[in-house]
Amino acid sequence: MANAPSKPSTPVKKESSSASGMFATLAIPLCLIVTVLIYIFVLGDGSHFKGGDPKNDPTDIFGTVHKGGVIVPIIMGFLLMVIVFSIERFIVIGKASGTGNVDAFVRRVQSFLNAGNIEAAAAECDKQKGSVANVIKSGLKKYREVENDPAMDTEQKALAIQKDIEEATALEMPMLEQNLTIIATLVSIGTLMGLLGTVIGMIGAFAELAAAGAPNTSALSTHISEALINTALGISTSAISIIMYNVFTSKIDKLTYAIDETGFSIVQTFASSHK
């Protein structure tokens, strides 16, 4: 019965995880559909080509990108996914951080703990909200529960508080890391699809060179352009994916450190005040 107060948040976390999974399921095909439509109706518009025919040479950057071939909308879809999932992670991690600065919140809680004011520390968690505050508040609830339990000694009580904090952390952290694997996967896929487009373009270029008679310089330049465009898009997608993945892992590590630091303070405060 001692652990009962810390469990009601579990269905909420499962619901959040399910919503995040549903978002990913819908976002991936929608991104690809959007970029295919952009490729056909925007980049492939006749105004971007000589004579209004997409088969002719391009007159601007949009027509040049369209000449990259069928791999272009796929890579563009990956790039759009990076943007969409980055925005989603910014929102989720922002909510997890709470309403105020996490470092300032941790300092305030530690100051209340050092003064032995557990109620004020819990009230600070209610003000802050978010994952960090939820975990700390769970630890403070356990603190109050075990404080007057005659069946446990001080060491057992401290271990119970620590275990409760670890369990609360295990419920909160997966929600922050969800969908990060998609961004991490796009790092490799973006490069590989760019390489595939490059290979396809170079195959066409060498085929033109191997053709009988004088090579068609227009067709040759088109294939080389296709290769270079796919290379540029693939590298750009991978570069942005790496940057965003590192940004989010850094933010999550910061939140985890704040939880660990404050959790340690709660346990130490209990142990020192109940010797």
Automatic annotation (TrEMBL):
One matching Pfam family: MotA_ExbB
Main location per the UniProt record: membrane
A biological process from GO: protein import
Membrane topology: Multi-pass membrane protein
Span of domain MotA/TolQ/ExbB proton channel: 132-259
Cellular-component GO terms for this entry: plasma membrane
Subcellular location: Cell membrane; Membrane
Bilayer-crossing regions: 21-44, 64-87, 180-207, 227-248
Keywords assigned: Cell membrane, Membrane, Protein transport, Transmembrane, Transmembrane helix, Transport
InterPro entries: ExbB/TolQ_transport, MotA_ExbB_proton_chnl
Family to which this protein belongs: Belongs to the exbB/tolQ family.
Protein name according to UniProt: MotA/TolQ/ExbB proton channel family protein
Source organism: Mucilaginibacter limnophilus
